[in-house]
Amino acid sequence: MREIDIDDLGSDGGSSDPYKCGLVAMVGLPNAGKSTLVNALVGEKVSAISPIPQTTRTLIRGILTEPRGQIVFLDTPGIHRLSHAFNHLMIDMSREALLGAHVIVWVISLDPMPSRDDIARMRDLLLPILDGRPLLIAATKMDKTGGHGMIPKLLEIESWGLPAEIIPVSGAKSKNLDRFLDVVFRHLPEGENLFDPELYTNQTVRQLVRELIQEKIFWSLREEVPHQSAVMIEEYIEPEGPRGITTIRGVIIVERDSQKAIMIGSGGERIREVSEKARLEIERLVGGKVFLRMLVKVEPAWRDNPRILRELGYIGE
Ligand SMILES: Nc1nc2c(ncn2[C@@H]2O[C@H](COP(=O)(O)OP(=O)(O)OP(=O)(O)O)[C@@H](O)[C@H]2O)c(=O)[nH]1
Ligand SMILES: [Mg+2]
């Protein structure tokens, strides 16, 4: 997390600028690069990233506090076409973020660019609900286009005629983020911190752990298995002393026996790989040794089952 430097306060001649604070919804199509951008802006991994669309499933808040103000970024599930109840929930979460935000950022991938249909769908969703609020376009993945390749793509976005300032950025390579933040701060309302400035997310450690394990599943498996899986933390025991071990027991839920076999892998190879990769990141998160044990369980049609969706925290009590 960025430290607040007392010398910085007012040292840029901007001491008379009011302190700003607000909610900034980051929305867009699946795989656009929203979570990568939020993590880069906040400087910590608050949200899982993967090459598979629909990685983000819940509303995740990434908090950035600077001498000039506090931004609460709302990372949202990508807006996609609907099927399961679970997918409807994901879209609802994006909509909820959109309705409550002070600034709306449409994250658009420069490479690959979205299709015409997808652009029209997003525009139809966003424009009617702006209600006078500022819309920004974060044209991300600029590192993939090369300097010259970027210009025609930015011009194309401009030709869509949206009432939005367009800022090219790269979440993966942390490019142009300062400029992006300047623009966001310009549009934020005055206000006091919404969250403790020490926090970089409002998620609990358990939720961050779940997000990290889910991310490793997305990276280790392809096709439909990751989407049809979910992680539950059944037991989380804090270490006894400063050098103690955090014990975590969790379950990966899948929909069918065949998926369970894939998730476990031959001789347990796959589940070991997922657990090992997750464990290393969780150790970094908690700052100590971790014992992580994951089991795989079949729960047919869990994505349409309100009881399980509630247990997983995807819907409220
Ligand atoms: N080269 C490059 N790749 C990026 C950048 N941002 C994201 N990616 C890649 O794009 C893929 C999707 O990134 P995510 O951040 O998970 O995208 P998302 O919009 O959060 O996706 P959903 O949660 O599924 O809606 C991953 O493979 C990222 O590594 C970028 O700035 N440059
Ligand atoms: Mg995401």
Automatic annotation (TrEMBL):
Membrane topology classification: Peripheral membrane protein
Transmembrane segments: none
Segments of this protein annotated with the region G5: 169-171
Superkingdom as given in the UniProt entry: Bacteria
Region (G1): 28-35
Keyword vocabulary terms for this entry: Cell inner membrane, Cell membrane, Cytoplasm, GTP-binding, Membrane, Nucleotide-binding, Ribosome biogenesis, RNA-binding, rRNA-binding
The Era-type G domain, residue ranges: 20-190
CDD domains to which the protein is assigned, alphabetical: Era, KH-II_Era
Subcellular location(s) of the protein: Cytoplasm; Cell inner membrane
Region listing for G2, in residue ranges: 54-58
Molecular-function GO terms, alphabetical: GTP binding; GTPase activity; ribosomal small subunit binding; small ribosomal subunit rRNA binding
Keyword RNA-binding among UniProt keywords: yes
GO (cellular component) term, any one: plasma membrane
Binding site for GTP: 28-35, 75-79, 140-143
UniProt domain KH type-2: residue ranges: 221-300
Family to which this protein belongs: Belongs to the TRAFAC class TrmE-Era-EngA-EngB-Septin-like GTPase superfamily. Era GTPase family.
Protein name per the record: GTPase Era
Gene name linked to the record: era
